[in-house]
Amino acid sequence: MHGWSFSSHIWKDFFDIPDSQFIDLPFHGQNKNYTDQNIMENFAEDIYKQIQKSQEEVVLVGWSLGASVSVLTALKKPSNLKKIVLIGFSPKFKDKNLGHNPVFVKAFMVALKVDFPDTIYNFRKTAAGDTFIDIPLPEKEGSIKLLREFIELDLTQKLKNISVPTYLIHGKKDKIINYQGSVFASQQIENAHLYLTNSNHAPFLERDTQDLIKNIIS
Length: 218
Description:
By secondary structure, the protein is an alpha/beta fold. It is about 40% helix and about 10% strand.
């Protein structure tokens, strides 16, 4: 699962992985029509049901907001979930030590209301460079509601309940989410493996991290 404002196309370097699915977040990509109430919880429930129906073991990979959905899904303990990979994860986004400075978060939300396209353009450039700035915009109102839920989400006390092996990958130059969020998570999750890279918010765009992720999945 990709991060906020992008789409599943961000994973194009992973499209060659056999038996893989690339899922768009609500109001993003091909998933524009979705309930606008309890979005993250409902979406996690949808993913949980998909995993339960699977005939094989599943590895769930999530980036940024998608990583939070992965955690919410793992907490439901689907029987076929083998491991989770969390990239650029924040257990509490509205926290400058575990996520982002709340003052800047508030200003960003105001900017979205004033100029949605340009604010997303700048956000994408900070998060992942210019490579994916041409991904179609998410649906405005629904994606903003989804982002608000993410901002208010606090998973700090729930991480200890994750029972599957968890792989945390975070760029130390990340300007969107403080990499200490992943460090904290690695200390709370019993079977956690932490990988810090010399990258930004999207380390999976780099070849070394792509190889690492593919090795974890295999």
